[in-house]
Amino acid sequence: MAQKTPEIYSVELSGTEDVGKTDTGDGKEKYRGLKDKRLELKKNHQKEELKKEVDLEDHKLSIKELERKYGTNIVTGLSSTQAAELLARNGPNALTPPKETPEIVKFLKQMVGGFSILLWIGAILCWIAYGIQYFNDKSSSLDSVYLGCVLALVVILTGIFAYYQEAKSTNIMASFSKMIPQQALVIRDSEKKTVPAEQLVVGDIVEIKGGDKIPADIRLLSTQGCKVDNSSLTGESEPQSRSCEFTHDNPLETKNIGFYSTTCLEGTATGMVINTGDRTIIGQIASLASGVGHEKTPIAIEIEHFVHIVAGVAVSIGILFFIIAVSMKYYVLDSIIFLIGIIVANVPEGLLATVTVTLSLTAKRMAKKNCLVKNLEAVETLGSTSIICSDKTGTLTQNRMTVAHLWFDNQIFVADTSEDHSNQVFDQSSGTWASLSKIITLCNRAEFRPGQESVPIMKKVVVGDASETALLKFSEVILGDVMEIRKRNRKVAEIPFNSTNKFQLSIHETDDPSDKRFLMVMKGAPERVLEKCSTIMVNGQEQPLDDSTAEAFHTAYMELGGLGERVLGFCHLYLPADKFPETYSFDVDTVNFPTSNLCFVGLLSMIDPPRSTVPDAVTKCRSAGIKVIMVTGDHPITAKAIAKSVGIISANSETVEDIAKRLNIPVEQVSKRDAKAAVVTGMELKDMSPEQLDELLTDYSEIVFARTSPQQKLIIVEGCQRQDAVVAVTGDGVNDSPALKKADIGIAMGIAGSDAAKNAADMVLLDDNFASIVTGVEEGRLIFDNLKKTIAYTLTKNIAELCPFLIYIIAGLPLPIGTITILFIDLGTDIIPSIALAYEKAESDIMNRKPRHKKKDRLVNAPLAIYSYLHIGLMQALGAFVVYFTVYAQEGFRPSALINLRVEWEKDSVNDLEDSYGQEWTQYQRKYLEWTGYTAFFVGIMIQQIADLIIRKTRRNSIFQQGLFRNKVIWVGIASQIIIALILSYGLGSVSALNFTMLRPQYWFVAVPHAILIWVYDEVRKLFIRLYPGSWWDKNMYY
Amino acid sequence: MRRQLRSRRAPAFPYGYRYRLDDQDEVNQNYLADEEEEAEEEARVMVVHDLEEEEEEEEKEEEEKEEEEGQGQPTSNALWQKLQTVNEYLWDPEKRMSLARTGQSWSLILVIYFFFYASLAAVITLCMYTLFLTISPYMPTFTERVKPPGVMIRPFAHSLNFNFNVSEPDTWQHYVISLNGFLQGYNDSLQEEMNVDCPPGQYFIQDGNEDEDKKACQFKRSFLKNCSGLEDPTFGYSTGQPCILLKMNRRGDENDIRSINYYPESASFDLRYYPYYGKLTHVNYTSPLVAMHFTDVVKNQAVPVQCQLKGKGIINDVINDRFVGRVIFTLNIET
């Protein structure tokens, strides 16, 4: 039987041998990658230390040798002084937290990042200009000093703001990673002491019991039924038993080593600490993770690209006009001032802060939906994700064994594996089920921990191993109070499971008072159980076990095993009352009762079932064009079964092996083109060249990687990234953490996730719900679209701010808008509206389109820049100039009089400058008029920015399709614009330093027709885009 | 913009997003789960894909080149290659494209932008025309900004500090020339010929239509007496008794100054020179002047002088504006 089902890894109940057997083959290779990485790290001279640990030999040593090696005694332990010495030498038993960038460096980075450099240059130029001025004329005005200070202030304030935002999101994590200090029970000076786990040193003798986290890497010295959960290290959801025997060369496979941060599930053990802190296996993986460089997030690349564009435009226009100004015989000093003006006009000072706010708003929104974003920029990354590499255990699955199928009466029944088990629909009327349920209930040592009456059954804590827990909960849900049933059927004898028997047996009194017989129940590996049976129960009747029923059993067993499920067989026997009277004394050592010719009742299969939300989420990812790849440390069969059940391998697609099996031909003869899906093991992956991996990743749309090591996960992620894909990795275990770090976005599970995973990740799913990723994708895509709108909105007015300077230099008009006024637009009226665009709803179903290509679908593309700068921006500039000319003309300076007036206009000593009507103006009267011009120009831009804001709500749809009033925040933005402008003009109009004046009310309306024109023009643009998709217009006008 | 080069399926979809989705379909071909595209199409897409990548690189290289300029190039070969790709981007003889656009595409762009900017020009012309319709050619719509008149002095040469040495004519000659030039318009003959003699002490109100030409009141140079430059062509500068003319923008007495003569003696701007009806109709208007003849000023030190206008509707204490209703200058006469 065992030979017949070599693929079924999961028949193991809780034995010891099979795990060893199945792992022997690939176990060595499985962790080879890890070692390789360590060797690589050696080359990094900093990591030299790690290399020493490559050959962990402690599991091969005898206890005596160990004692010698570590200078300890397994009975008395270390002495306190020895321990203190070792602690001082080796450092505390804790993982070194990843190196944090010093706060000051983070702060300074904000000060010089983005546009800050440009503004610093502007400020410094201002001060230099003043210096020269001062050198020539001691009484020169301090204007340029003020401007320089204002620019510096702007940089510092936006820097502080960005720093604060960044710090805020980091703090969320800080609170997250704070853990309750772990305690360890250690023998020192021949006494048992409880010390903080941090103070453990090598050579310490520690005791652990069920429920404890193992406090360091320990070599086990004695064990009693000890089982550990290594899932965070290897991804296997099954508990691994531990003993003191050396069973495997590979330290990770041998049974006599317990690993730091894994959990002891049951039993007790005593062990000697052999590695602490960063030198533990977990510590090494963690440092592997920290060795992985973090790539720039896609949005950071986009913003950098955008900054380059804008800075390029600013600098080139600035320099161009500097040259023009100089060649027009302007003083170099004046030309420098122009240069500053052009830079300030071109740089959207408030935009980066806006982007930060927008991202953090989305991050908040996602946090409400249980997606905690650690790195703000990761908000968008999820939106551009094109491949999700998902871990299986704990991410796609519930990470707990659950009864999935039953087989009795020659029929396979499906059990409900959803999180609450609420909907068990299989036929429970058969007499066989009655017997089977009794065996399930009685032949089970697991118990609920007391005091959990109010907790839902599925959430109750159980003492017992995973399979028994599954059976207990299953029966509790269906039959009700299991403990009560057990009480009524008093247990008189029991043979617990052991690896040689591979079965578990117990004998009970029956709850039928008239029936004096004893009931013997047995469960175990199906083939073993079947061997002991001579009859089989069908429809409640015992029938002899003939070849046909045995065949049916095998078919069912193979089928369930093929689903990657762990199968158990159940049988019973009513002991005849005459031979076994009520007073019969059962002796489990001599086995004074029959253990053969039993009656086979049924099979039950268990699996770590997928989370119920996962299949739907995978489908959604698919329709959103995201490829979902499973990468797991678990066995290929289980992995494939889960992949099929969640839709990672869709129902109608086959692997090469499937086709080979169906056509009954060797695997080599199958054309690879026919298969859509592939299951690749770590072994196969190890032999692949990067090119082959690339081929694999492109050829198959549905891929499952099984039995992978942490290093291989990294290789897979890198392979995906070579395809220009944006890769998201989800995982919970320590073994996932390097891949989480390497991924464009690492997503860790909040509940099941290990701290290493959470630390390496960019995002944490607080509810462990894979479906939250879909929400994240949606939010990420929306934010990308909305950022486009925000940037388009912000860039538009830059032209309206820039043109005045150009006209001023070329045509010599009195300056239409001042530098300070520009700052009031960029950092005043425009801020709230541009944030408001982040609240815009999607124009279409963003989950039905493919993810953006990170190199082609840019945030700021040519159409966006051109349309903003050369279309709407120019229209805005014209509108604002109309307001400006109106103000000047009505005060006495007709446009014609303004041309080339600049020199006279700005001379302090000219106090009788004649206007178009012959009126004469003093210098201050002119200055005041100039400020009125600034205010007018400002109001002109502001009014048209309202129109700009409205048109930016959509990129393709008509505003009326989108709904003018659906996004209320937009209206808050518009109101804020108007109110800020009113305050600046009427409230602060008397503060001369701000260069605002009280503008006559009628001037507020001069730009309104232009605003309407902008709206109409944009509606026409969108109309043509919708009417003629794919046309020249669409390609050049859709941004 | 570059995208237009790409071959694509005929846009048969009337509305909506299908096209856009399709577009991305092409772009993201490689990642897609469903690979139902036909092989033929795939091949074509691949070609396009390559082309685009090339362009992308070129663009990037151009950027890089800009950035690297001045930093020195790694090797001349790499530089040459870069230059070549840039050059090819600027003008690709094979595909007859410049900046990744064909001539046809460029002309289409030029035509469209020509029409767009022409319409914008039309719009602004219309706006300016409307603006001119709303403002009067005779008087500005709002005048209260200049209502408190400013005061200026003559001679004025860039500075309000009068520094000169009596014994060195070079130091004051330019003042004399400036005054002479300024007073040409006030020559008696010219004034008598062009302007009318109107009654003093009252506003010279001229009713009638806005567009009628208005008469201007005579202000003869001779009113300025000793400061007219008629008797003393050096306006007193040669004797250290400089004349400074006070002019009110269209529309006085310190210890160091021991003696000032004012011409006209009233030391006032007569009402008859007001109101001013604007440049267009009030032709040949000459602003009234008051000459100050500093006959005895402390020599060899800077003497600050502040002249204030006094009268109804005159403001002379605006903090920010030192020329509204007053003028401050310094005299520093060396002997």
Automatic annotation (TrEMBL), chain A:
<feature type="compositionally biased region" description="Basic and acidic residues">
    <location>
        <begin position="18"/>
        <end position="30"/>
    </location>
</feature>
<keyword id="KW-1278">Translocase</keyword>
<feature type="domain" description="Cation-transporting P-type ATPase N-terminal">
    <location>
        <begin position="57"/>
        <end position="131"/>
    </location>
</feature>
<keyword id="KW-0630">Potassium</keyword>
<keyword id="KW-0479">Metal-binding</keyword>
<keyword id="KW-0375">Hydrogen ion transport</keyword>
<feature type="transmembrane region" description="Helical">
    <location>
        <begin position="306"/>
        <end position="330"/>
    </location>
</feature>
<keyword id="KW-0406">Ion transport</keyword>
<keyword id="KW-0813">Transport</keyword>
<dbReference type="Pfam" id="PF00690">
    <property type="entry name" value="Cation_ATPase_N"/>
</dbReference>
<dbReference type="Pfam" id="PF13246">
    <property type="entry name" value="Cation_ATPase"/>
</dbReference>
<keyword id="KW-0472">Membrane</keyword>
<dbReference type="InterPro" id="IPR023298">
    <property type="entry name" value="ATPase_P-typ_TM_dom_sf"/>
</dbReference>
<dbReference type="InterPro" id="IPR008250">
    <property type="entry name" value="ATPase_P-typ_transduc_dom_A_sf"/>
</dbReference>
<keyword id="KW-0460">Magnesium</keyword>
<dbReference type="Pfam" id="PF00122">
    <property type="entry name" value="E1-E2_ATPase"/>
</dbReference>
<dbReference type="Pfam" id="PF08282">
    <property type="entry name" value="Hydrolase_3"/>
</dbReference>
<dbReference type="Pfam" id="PF00689">
    <property type="entry name" value="Cation_ATPase_C"/>
</dbReference>
<dbReference type="InterPro" id="IPR005775">
    <property type="entry name" value="P-type_ATPase_IIC"/>
</dbReference>
<dbReference type="InterPro" id="IPR023214">
    <property type="entry name" value="HAD_sf"/>
</dbReference>
<keyword id="KW-0597">Phosphoprotein</keyword>
<dbReference type="InterPro" id="IPR059000">
    <property type="entry name" value="ATPase_P-type_domA"/>
</dbReference>
TrEMBL record, chain B:
<protein>
    <recommendedName>
        <fullName>Sodium/potassium-transporting ATPase subunit beta</fullName>
    </recommendedName>
</protein>
<feature type="transmembrane region" description="Helical">
    <location>
        <begin position="106"/>
        <end position="132"/>
    </location>
</feature>
<dbReference type="InterPro" id="IPR038702">
    <property type="entry name" value="Na/K_ATPase_sub_beta_sf"/>
</dbReference>
<comment type="function">
    <text>May act as a transcriptional coregulator during muscle development through its interaction with SNW1. Has lost its ancestral function as a Na,K-ATPase beta-subunit.</text>
</comment>
<keyword id="KW-0813">Transport</keyword>
<keyword id="KW-0735">Signal-anchor</keyword>
<comment type="similarity">
    <text>Belongs to the X(+)/potassium ATPases subunit beta family.</text>
</comment>
<dbReference type="Pfam" id="PF00287">
    <property type="entry name" value="Na_K-ATPase"/>
</dbReference>
<keyword id="KW-1133">Transmembrane helix</keyword>
<keyword id="KW-0812">Transmembrane</keyword>
<keyword id="KW-0472">Membrane</keyword>
<feature type="compositionally biased region" description="Acidic residues">
    <location>
        <begin position="51"/>
        <end position="70"/>
    </location>
</feature>
<keyword id="KW-0406">Ion transport</keyword>
<dbReference type="InterPro" id="IPR000402">
    <property type="entry name" value="Na/K_ATPase_sub_beta"/>
</dbReference>
<feature type="region of interest" description="Disordered">
    <location>
        <begin position="35"/>
        <end position="78"/>
    </location>
</feature>
<comment type="function">
    <text>This is the non-catalytic component of the active enzyme, which catalyzes the hydrolysis of ATP coupled with the exchange of Na(+) and K(+) ions across the plasma membrane.</text>
</comment>
